Amino acid sequence: MMPTGATAELTEQDVLKAFDYEATVEDPMLTVAEIADALAKHFDIEVGNEVIRCRLRAMESDELVASEGAGDSTIKWTALVAPRLSDEVLVDAEAAEGEFERGETVSLDELTDDLKD
């Protein structure tokens, strides 16, 4: 299913980032209203619930999210994948790759011990 109109403006990454900010291990499920609130709060994205529902259904077809419940008002959604890293974070992650193997890192325990000394 190819999104059109307002749905096309709401990206999969936007939705996945909303889950990243609001879902927890203890409560990984979000309602459409909670996703809308997260999009507005964290990313200044204002879209209607139906746009979010359409995007979620398309993402569910692609196995990016899953739903449970019945009826639009009681359906909760969970992300099955994480959002892509931003270019800036990806560069930092790639630069840090191998630091542990080369002994260039210090564990939190070691750092705490050093601060106590």
Automatic annotation (TrEMBL):
Superkingdom to which the source organism belongs: Archaea
Protein name listed in UniProt: Ribonuclease R winged-helix domain-containing protein
Taxonomic lineage: Archaea, Methanobacteriati, Methanobacteriota, Stenosarchaea group, Halobacteria
Span of domain Ribonuclease R winged-helix: 30-72
Entries under Pfam families matching the protein: WHD_RNase_R (PF08461)
